[in-house]
Give the backbone structure.
Amino acid sequence: MIRHRFIKLIPALLVAASFFAGCGRKESDAHKEGGHGHEEESPSGASFKPGKGVMLTEETRKILGLQTAEVTEQKLPAKLRFNVQIFGEAHRHELRAADHAGCDVHGSGYLSPAKAATVRAGLPVEVQTRSNGVFHGVVLDVHPELAIGESEVVIGVSNATTQIKSGEFLAASITLPRNDAVAVIPRSALLQTSEGMFVYAVNGDAFFRTAVKIGSEADGLVEITDGLLAGDAVATKPVETLYLIELRATKGGGHSH
């Protein structure tokens, strides 16, 4: 999976590398001409200015295949993600006969009491197998806070005995209904770094790296809980290249002023 993602990034990285190769030449020209008082554009058509962001010429935008999207408001379903362990019919919590109807695999996982309070029996669950298959099930029961400070959520999955085995730990998510619209952006606009989660927000003719906090994810969209408002615009491609341009300018002795 990591290798596949790296291969997809190679074209963007090569373009970014061509930008960086010419950074020093323009700066030396600026010194000769005494042009240090304003932002100089690199021969590659990419530049960076603190407080403003990454700037690209129109030609460079086309070469990079730059794409943007507006922050919209949608009723994105909320999803609680957690890990479940699959167990056989022998389990320390007895399930009601009705809970067994249509479910041939059962499992349980733990959520904080605050999150568990939003969960009820009957809510849909998705369980992802180790081979990336997805099985659909339901929440069967929610047990009160235990001694470990978490609440246990019991789930049931149908027609899964051939691919889900007792004792396995698998990723699961519970879909919660939501009545209010929230700010959302495409998942591709997110940039995850060691410093946190960011987007490149449109800032006039530039793209400014902006810290954001995220919530639920569904259908390729991500909820933004802090950092952006509906009507803002963000770059959705190529976010990694924009970051490389900024890093070169700020940490690699580039031509930012």
Summary: The radius of gyration is 24 Å. The longest strand covers residues 134-145.
